[in-house]
Specification:
- With 181 residues, the chain is of the alpha+beta class.
- The protein has a single domain, classed as L-amino peptidase D-ALA esterase/amidase, CATH 3.60.70.
- It has 3 helices and 9 strands.
- It has a 4-stranded mixed sheet with strand order 3-4-7-9, with helices on one face. The chain has a 3-stranded antiparallel sheet with strand order 6-5-8.
- Strand 5 and strand 6 form a beta hairpin.
- The two termini are 27 Å apart.
- The model has no long low-confidence stretch (mean pLDDT 91).
Length: 181
């Protein structure tokens, strides 16, 4: 057992209706062999959505496990807020082989948070402790803005992979095990 073992998403109606999550990774190579990679442990109150379509791909499970309910809609209807605990954190790291200064690495971490917003809804709630760290090593010349935008993309992809590649555990089903996904 380790990081991501107890990770769940879609906790608006309690852990009993949540979906198993875990750890996801993604990377992208661009330009003059610049690489940006991400690893994220996804344990979010909100739903994980497809960044391209906005469709919920993991969240509070319908009672018959035939799909997912929408956390935002549940909360707007006045349900679910009292059932949320405080042990929810999506935490990740982006790393690049680009040579960046300390302020530039800080900017990459800030921009990488956009990836959280692309793939988790809602994100950064009072119940979440969402954090992205960034690091730079290597000697490749790169524009910090481009590194940051790629960081957001790989964070979003890593989040999606954390739920689509998770395996159920102790009766908590993962996306791959649900009917009608």
């Amino acid at each position: 057992m380790g990081t991501g073992t107890g990770a769940l998403v879609g906790k608006a109606l309690g852990a009993e209706q949540a979906t198993k999550s875990g750890i996801g990774t993604a990377s992208q190579r661009f330009g003059d062999d610049i690489i940006v990679g991400a690893i994220v442990a996804v344990n979010a109150v909100g739903d994980v959505v497809d960044p391209e379509t906005g469709r919920i791909i993991a969240g509070p499970r319908r009672p018959d496990d035939s799909g997912f309910l929408d956390t935002s809609e549940i909360w707007k209807s006045g349900q679910g807020l009292r059932q949320i605990g405080v042990s929810n954190t999506t935490i990740g790291v982006v790393a690049t082989n680009a040579r960046l200064s300390k302020p530039e690495v800080t900017k990459v971490a800030q921009m990488a948070h956009d990836g959280l917003a692309r793939a988790i809804r809602p994100v950064h709630t009072m119940f979440d402790g969402d954090t992205i760290f960034a690091l730079s090593f290597g000697d490749k010349q790169a524009d910090v803005t481009v590194v940051g935008l790629v960081a957001a993309e790989v964070i979003a992809r890593a989040i999606v992979r954390a739920v689509t590649q998770a395996q159920g555990l102790c009766g908590m089903p993962a996306v791959a095990e649900l009917k009608g996904k």
